[in-house]
Amino acid sequence: MKIICITGTPGTGKTTLALKLSKALTFPVLDVKEFIKQKKLAESYDQKRKCAVVDEKLLSKELLKEITKVKKEHYPEGIIIDSHLSHYLPSSKVDLCIVAKASLKVISNRLKKRKYSKLKIKDNLEAEAFDTCYEEAKALKHNLLVTDTTKGIKITSLLPKIRGAMR
Ligand SMILES: Nc1ncnc2c1ncn2[C@@H]1O[C@H](COP(=O)(O)OP(=O)(O)OP(=O)(O)O)[C@@H](O)[C@H]1O
Ligand SMILES: [Mg+2]
Question: Containing H/E element for 2?
Fold first, then answer.
């Protein structure tokens, strides 16, 4: 079973891309936000930023268990893991790590629409400016494919690249 993880700063279009890719490849998507809620994996809640605080190692361990379960019960050809923490999965298990990117202006507009606080928008823009997800995924030796969603996602041109890059 192929494992594709989609990482990137919030607002870069991971979920949008995951859904399009899921349709094109007929792989299910593991919605990590929902998974964290279901499994009660949040250690605490950041009141200032209005988000759950999750330990990456614990999440990665639980995700691997869940992936094994999906494989045993549904034996799909592949699975898509949608999360800005998905690159913490061991690179040896992941066939492709897609990093979604977007211009700072576009991310800022997308997050404003979500009514995120100024602090949360600033944090996320900084993370994107420093390429945090990309740098972390690279350091963890993932098989990387970067895609920019600033001007939208063209799944027909992206799909051959994804197929070609998959281990
Ligand atoms: N390619 C795109 N073209 C236009 N709008 C997009 C595109 N991708 C995403 N958006 C819009 O940007 C917003 C954020 O996208 P999305 O929810 O996919 O990001 P995300 O990376 O999954 O964020 P999070 O990490 O918070 O889950 C959404 O409102 C979505 O409609
Ligand atoms: Mg999302």
Answer: strand 2-7
- CA torsion through residues 84, 35, 112, 20, sign: positive
Give the residue from 107, 111, 82, 98 showing the smallest Cα distance to 137: 98
Give distance in angstroms: CA of 104 to centre of ligand 2.
17
pLDDT band, very low/low/confident/very high, at 50 (cuts 50, 70, 90) = confident
DSSP codes, 149-166: -TT---HHHHHHHHHHH-
**Residues forming beta bridges with residue 52, ordered by sequence position:** 45
Average pLDDT score over residue span 66-78: 97
State the distance from the centre of ligand 2 to the C-alpha of 31, rounded, in angstroms. 8
Residue 99 near residue 147, CB atoms below 8 Å? yes
pTM of the model: 0.96
- The H or E element that residue 37 is part of is helix 32-38
Tell me, what's the pLDDT at 74?
A: 95
Instruction: Supply the residue whose CA is at minimum distance from atom 29 of ligand 1.
Output: 110
User: Which residues on neighbouring strands pair with residue 44, listed in sequence order?
Assistant: 53
**Can you list the domains of the chain with their CATH numbers?**
2-157 (3.40.50.300)
Please report which confidence band the pLDDT of residue 49 belongs to, taking 50, 70 and 90 as the band edges: confident
What is the phi-psi region of residue 45: left when phi exceeds 0, alpha when psi lies from -120 to 50, beta otherwise? Answer: beta
